[in-house]
Design a protein that fits this description.
With 482 residues, this protein is an alpha/beta fold. It is built from 14 helices and 24 strands. It holds the Pfam family Aldedh.
Length: 482
């Protein structure tokens, strides 16, 4: 049964022990600015100790059968699910998203644990028809080894479980560096992993404000054979370079500039609902948010009016308050960026309806907005907004929409709204993105591969592809068979 009053650790986790430090940093509620807790501000030395622990724990953990590991993961899933309410409240306090969204994320994060508790038992090798008499060919899958994860603040539970669950299911051990904005969620699910029976050293959490130093150690230590990172493209490129000398395997889920294309033949209600879900959840702070909303001329005005009408009813406030749909942005820099992008667009001729700073709002709040007459030469259509502003770009023809959508170095997500099945399929195939939602604003789940192309990253998370990211394929040739 969920205990809404359950308290979670505020110390880092290394080798099964909770580690404090003289140097700490504060975790604050973005809605109020109030301090929630202080956590240890660790550095390179402690990161090395965490790698030591993971390396020491690797042989015993990898030697367990897939079924044994799966049973422990299933217990972890049950514990996380049972603590949905306490975890959701903790997440809302440190991250700011509405409580309903936090509950949804706990379920989403737990789904990866459940999925990989089963999928680990399906890490199949294969037999290959021989090319030479007297020989037999087989492949087996083996864990890659010690892994490291650097995770973001916008989904502080799901972005960890999506990485840790397949790693543990594969037989790997893990060192996690969570965002300094949201370390408490990471420590909470790590504690539940220990309660489920994950052995000491298998799952370590290093809290720190010194991301460059921690990241450098994770990248340069040769014992770490895999790095997985979710965050900006700029940081991802730095980590990519730093991993080169030890030739690590990488999964990089980087920035996006998702186009959402609405054709004249779209169902207006579906298109608006899908846009609301994609654009405004988590106050627009997701990597797959619709960043450029391309709307065909014939439906443009009706779509813009309907979208604006829908957001008028959105409650803005603390995520713990009843009726809140839009919580605070994560920090002052996030607010400044949104304001800068909007100001640039307005200066160049766009118009913004509603939105912005409201009277009596806290300093990190930004009310949802619809921007009309945006163009592709504005910063707001080329940079990730990461805020609740929908920038609408008008287009005429299908070919123009495809060209506009693909005119970006990024390729994470894209969306298409059309009731014409031929058009929807044709456009989805031509969009340069790792994931495409057709008449859907939310598509991510544990059973489907998540990831991008171009400068949006490498590799996939979730699904069977997510397990493969933590395994090596070994070919064995058996000779001398008469």
């Amino acid at each position: 049964m969920t205990d809404e009053t359950k308290t979670y650790p505020t110390d880092a986790l290394i080798d099964g022990a909770w580690i404090g430090a003289d140097r700490t940093f504060a975790v604050t509620d973005p809605a109020t600015g109030d301090e929630i807790a202080k956590v240890p501000d660790l550095g390179a030395a402690e990161t090395t100790k965490a790698i030591d622990a993971a390396y020491k724990a690797l042989p015993e953990w990898s030697a367990k059968t897939a079924k044994q590991r799966g049973q422990i993961l299933k217990k972890w899933f049950d514990l996380v699910t049972a603590q949905t309410e306490s975890l959701a409240r903790l997440m809302t306090l440190e991250q700011g998203k509405p409580l309903t969204e936090s509950r949804g994320e706990v379920a989403y994060g737990a789904s990866f644990i459940e999925w990989f508790s089963e999928e680990g038992k399906r890490a199949y090798g294969r037999t290959i028809p021989t090319t030479v008499e007297g020989k037999r060919y087989v492949t087996i899958k083996q864990p890659i080894g010690v892994c490291a994860a650097i995770t973001p603040w916008n989904f502080p539970i799901a972005m960890i479980t999506r990485k840790v669950a397949p790693a543990l299911a594969a037989g790997c051990t893990m060192v996690v560096k969570p965002s300094e904005e949201t370390p408490l969620s990471a420590l909470a699910i790590a504690e539940l992993a220990l309660e489920a029976g994950v052995p000491a050293g298998v799952f370590n959490v290093v809290t720190s404000t010194d991301a460059p130093s921690v990241g450098k150690v994770l990248c340069e230590d040769s014992r770490v054979r895999k790095l997985t990172f979710t965050g900006s493209t700029a940081v991802g490129k730095t980590l990519y370079r730093q991993c080169a000398d030890t030739v690590k395997k990488l999964t990089l889920e980087l920035g996006g500039n998702a186009p959402l294309v609405v054709f004249d033949d779209a169902d207006l209600d579906k298109a608006v609902a899908g846009t609301l879900a994609s654009k405004y959840r988590n106050a627009g702070q997701t990597c797959v948010c619709a960043n450029r909303i391309l709307v065909q001329s014939g439906i443009y005005d009706r779509f813009a009016d309907a979208l604006l009408e829908a957001i008028q009813s959105y409650g803005v406030g603390s995520g713990l308050e009843e009726g809140t749909v839009i919580g605070p942005l994560i920090n002052k820099d996030a607010v400044k960026k949104v304001e800068s992008l909007v100001a640039d667009a307005v200066e160049q001729g766009a118009s913004i309806s509603s939105g912005g700073k409201g009277e009596g709002d806290g300093e990190l709040f930004y009310r949802p907005a619809v921007m009309r007459d945006a163009t592709t030469d504005m910063r707001i259509t080329s940079e990730e907004i990461f805020g609740p502003v929908a920038a609408l770009v008008r287009f005429e023809a299908e070919s123009e929409a495809i060209d506009l959508a693909n005119d970006t170095p990024f390729g994470l997500a894209a969306y298409v709204f059309s009731e014409n099945l031929s058009r929807a399929w044709r456009v989805a195939e031509k969009l340069e993105a790792g994931m495409v939602g057709v008449n859907e604003g939310i598509f991510s789940n544990e059973a489907a591969p998540f990831g991008g192309i171009k400068e949006s990253g490498l590799g996939r998370e979730g699904a069977s592809e997510g397990l493969d990211e933590y395994m090596e394929t070994k070919f064995i040739c058996l000779g001398g068979i008469a």
